[in-house]
Amino acid sequence: MAAAACLNLLVINICVISTVCQLANFAAAQGQHSVCQDLQPSPALTPFVDPLPFPKTIDISNGTQLVMGAYKITQKLHSQLPPTTLYAYGTSQTTATYPGPTLQVTRYKAAHVRWENHIPDSETFLITDRTIHWANPKRGGVPIVTHLHGAEVESIYDGNPDAWFTASGETGPEFVTQNYTYPNSQRASLLWYHDHTVGITRNNVLAGLAGLYIVRSPSEEPKNLPSGEYEIPLVVQDKQFWANGSINFPDIGDSPSTHPNWCPEYFGDTVLVNGMVWPYLNVYPAKYRFRLLNAANARFFNLTINEPSLKFIQIGTDSGFLRSPLTLSSLTLAPGYRVDFIIDFSGITPGTKIYLNNTAPAPFPSGDDSLLTKIPSVLEFRVISTPQGVHPPSTSVPQNMNITLPTPAYSLTANVHRKLTLTETDDADGNPVLILLNNRSWVDPVTESPKLGSVEVWDIINLTPDAHPIHLYLIAFLLVQQQEFNQTLYEEGGCSLDSPFGDPQSCFTESPQPPNAEQVGFKDTFITYPSKVSRLWTRWTNREGKPFPMSIRSSSMRETGAASRLQFSNQLTAES
Ligand SMILES: *[C@@H]1O[C@H](CO)[C@@H](O)[C@H](O)[C@H]1NC(C)=O
Ligand SMILES: *[C@@H]1O[C@H](CO)[C@@H](O)[C@H](O)[C@H]1NC(C)=O
Ligand SMILES: *[C@@H]1O[C@H](CO)[C@@H](O)[C@H](O)[C@H]1NC(C)=O
Ligand SMILES: *[C@@H]1O[C@H](CO)[C@@H](O)[C@H](O)[C@H]1NC(C)=O
Ligand SMILES: *[C@@H]1O[C@H](CO)[C@@H](O)[C@H](O)[C@H]1NC(C)=O
Ligand SMILES: *[C@@H]1O[C@H](CO)[C@@H](O)[C@H](O)[C@H]1NC(C)=O
Ligand SMILES: *[C@@H]1O[C@H](CO)[C@@H](O)[C@H](O)[C@H]1NC(C)=O
Ligand SMILES: *[C@@H]1O[C@H](CO)[C@@H](O)[C@H](O)[C@H]1NC(C)=O
After folding, report:
1. Does residue 478 share a domain with residue 423?
2. pLDDT tens across 316-340, in order?
3. Domain count, the chain
4. Which residue owns the Cα nearest ligand 8 atom 14?
5. Domain span including residue 61
């Protein structure tokens, strides 16, 4: 899929894979959860005994091709846990890590990465359900294909789920090349790369195939931000373990007669940051900038700080800086979300321990307590005295990030207004078996064709019982509003979503609500809530409102396994 398009991240890939999807959430609404989620608890692991590790940073801005492979490795994920078998990205077998190295690029400087597959297994070690739509290589092996989430990139380099390849050289139907070029034309922001293979993305990302990708833009970035050792990448992911260190992953499906192995949503009982279970981070009484990714399969995080005097000073989202910072007590993150924030520890007495905690139910937003992690924390900050001779630089929180947003977004005229429903269908036992966007699945033909350069309003009508992250490829968009409606009445055909709130015919039960704090600013992933219509403002150009700096051949759109494909109706060349 080239690029433009929509897809719900990991949660959605789950659905791509098969069909059931919502069972967990469905059951959660009744105060239960799915039997396949009843995993044996992880062994006891003392929290906060291991320091936060940092993936190595590789700067690829000089244009030299980086060869990045996927390998099978073992890695210690907690000092009390035996080494864990993982799949991991790296430049060699011995240097591959989970998460993969952080790739750093400079805006407008193209980077070249050759992706290789060195995984020797005959199948993915986290069980593959063969009854769902997946890559299914004839000669076996573990297919991989890497997607750079958030990139403005040409189709053939976008990591189409059907562009997979195995170590032995078998390729999927959309495969073109392993040598990818990233133009890096999007704004300074934190992207992430991860496996994207059709049907097993959830397995391979949980197995470890994910890493960060930082786009720097010196002219764009506010001066005086905390940097160097004061800029901290955080890749957050939940996992559950057997006593021998292996990942505990369900192998009995929710609806075993339909899908013997597939469990719709994975929730682990431990939280890892940068590949370590519940680590700690020493900080000086100074400002730190954090670049955080939620790389979980299905878990949302609602982060809080247990020291009330400390706030999250959010300066950026998925797609770059906010116009001005937001001071927040909590940060809600769906899978795929990135957030850029500052915490100012300046006033904290050395010796103090502070916790980054999580208050989000699982599934979000209406789960019961049974799928929460063993402790509600993500990370411990240990505030320590600044050693003699060390002088934390004088950094500041910018008041204005010099970002021009079209405001208010909804005042902009749109050429096209699309409405897309997100639905699920159930099997005879009432287990959801299929998730569809506009009643279409991944294999259906293209239905939506935005014109390059056009402005469109998209309404996503969530008729599932669950919140879903939705990711549009290629562009950054603005969430304009979300509005609740009476789904029962809507499904009875007794009202209209075309009539405004207050009209007797209207399905809406409230006036349009502006996005909540975590959904403000340019985004590439947002949360659809059940029984709400989410309205997006999209512009099918690059972030400057200009043509994309590459030729876009076609693109597709997917959401929860399903979806409409989407194709640009005109072609664009590099110079236009
Ligand atoms: C480009 O950067 C890479 C990674 O930092 C480095 O290994 C390589 O030597 C550099 N190439 C040139 C031509 O400077
Ligand atoms: C891809 O990159 C490799 C390694 O640099 C090179 O040997 C190969 O010729 C390239 N293939 C294509 C199709 O460009
Ligand atoms: C780890 O333990 C689990 C549960 O007993 C078992 O299924 C798995 O095969 C073990 N893994 C290894 C590498 O021994
Ligand atoms: C996140 O947690 C905070 C503190 O518990 C709470 O006030 C807020 O409503 C939560 N946000 C969401 C979206 O649940
Ligand atoms: C935050 O986490 C710490 C450490 O796990 C825990 O002791 C504390 O109770 C948590 N606070 C809240 C409000 O959950
Ligand atoms: C704001 O951004 C514009 C273009 O993006 C740039 O020309 C200008 O110098 C910036 N202003 C400041 C104060 O950084
Ligand atoms: C969805 O598609 C199926 C089969 O293609 C069809 O039977 C059904 O009526 C469609 N539902 C809606 C709401 O259009
Ligand atoms: C939604 O519609 C149903 C069916 O007409 C009705 O029973 C229910 O009271 C409505 N709910 C709300 C919140 O308006």
Report:
1. yes
2. 999 999 989 999 999 999 999 999 9
3. 3
4. 486
5. 16-216
